[in-house]
Structure formats: structure tokens, C-alpha cells
Amino acid sequence: MAHIDYHAVLEALQNHQDRCPLCCFLEKAEDSYFDSLLYSWVGTEGFQDRFLAANGFCPAHAHHLREQNDGVAVAMLYAPLLKHRLRWQQNRHRLPRLFRPLGRLKLRRNQGPAARGSRASLRDCPLCEQIALWETHFLHNLFRHQKELPLQEAFRSGTGLCLPHFERLLWGVGKAPAWLSHHQDERVRTLQESVEEYASGSQGRNSTVWRELLEYMEGPARAVRHTGHRRRFRS
Question: What are the residue ranges of helices labelled H in 4-96?
């Protein structure tokens, strides 16, 4: 797990000056998450239950798990989930028992992991939730320590935040510090000028400014945005 304090934010700003420092921090934190999952959590009853109750990972993080090339971990996590997903699908098409005696009706919902998994919302991926928490803590510390000169210098030396993370900062605090907003504005102006030159043919077609544009607009391809559009099995 990633522990986030002022020094963790400062280190990310200092070590990742050619990309969004928060995106880089999250990539490293995701790798740490999967290391812990593979070598500590898989097979433990607590994690297995939480995984089942969340209806597994979102598709993006499921494929990230696949990239770890650990078939045993995938089998241990997804074989039980497969059994329950099939059961949920079958239960969806069963006719209700209308003639069951009223005295035998069970009014309380089953709160076991499998039952909760059948009702999991679109945003219940355990890693998506953890990433949202990491983002919040990182941006909170960035804003909280905004007057620290080493932090300001490290931020100005880099490219700044990608647009999704800058928007998330604004959503969280309402108004970003003036020095940070100014740096973001400079980044946007520079990027716009480079893109216009590229589109007009002034820059060679070997330029990678279009990649920079996409990464600034959407964050890196590996990142998962919390838009709630994941396809899930629902009861």
C-alpha cells in the first residue's frame, strides 16, 4: 500500500518531471498493490471474501492482474467468482415464489460475501476504490503544503498535473493555488502551440506531441477513470 504524506508527494514531484507526477505515483502504487496481492493476500479468507463481495476487479484491473502471469492467483480468485456469477445469472431468470407461506418469508437480506457481490455497484472494484483514495490523499497533501518552497520548485520544474487530476484537485478544493494554476496555464499554452504547429506541418511528422496531448487530456493509458461505465454482472 502507498503511504502518502508531504515527503511522498515531494518525491513524486522531483522524480517525475516529464509526466503527471500523480499518474506516475499511482502506477507505482498499483504495482505495489499487486505485489502485496500475489505474495500476501491471495488465499487469505479476508481478501477472498472482499473480492467476492466486490464482484471482482473492473476489466482494466483484471487485465492488469493477467499481466502478472500468475495463473494460480487468477484461478484462486476467479474460479469461486465464476461459480457465483453463473448462479446470479440463473437466479435472475427464476420465477418468484408467489405461493410461499407468508410466515416463512425471509425479510432480511443475506449479507454474506456472495450475496453482496450479486448487488455490487458499478464502482465497487477494490483497486478502483483504493486508487480514488490515493488520489484524494495525494492532492490533499499537495494543497495542504502548497506554501512549502521545495514543493513549489519541484512542481514548477515538471510538466504539472494531467487535466483529469487537475480537475480532481479543483473539485476537491474549489480553487487551486495561484502559482499552481499559472503553471498549468503555461503548460496548456505550450502544448496548444506545439499541436497547432504539428497540425500545420511546421513540425516533422515524427513529432510525438500528439501523444503528449492525449496523455495530458486523459492521463496515461493504464489509468482507470472512475466514471462508473464498467460492465458488471448484476442481479
Answer: 6-15, 21-36, 45-53, 59-66, 71-92
Q: Distances in Å between the alpha carbon of 31 and those of 11, 22, 64, 191, 219? A: 17, 14, 9, 30, 17
Buried b (16+ CB within 10 A) or exposed e, 130-149: bbeebbebbbebbbebbeee
The Cα–Cα gap between 2 and 8 comes to: 9
User: Structurally, how many domains does the chain consist of?
Assistant: 1
Q: Please give the model's pTM, rounded to 2 decimal places.
A: 0.80
All three cell numbers of 66: 493477467
CB atoms within 10 A of CB 160: 23
In a domain, 189, yes or no: yes
Is pLDDT larger for residue 156 or for residue 108?
Answer: 156
The tens digit of pLDDT for each residue in 84-93 reads 888 888 776 6
Residue 162's domain comprises: 6-92+111-218
| Residue type, position 195, single letter | V
At residue 115, the pLDDT reads 76
In a domain, 97, yes or no: no
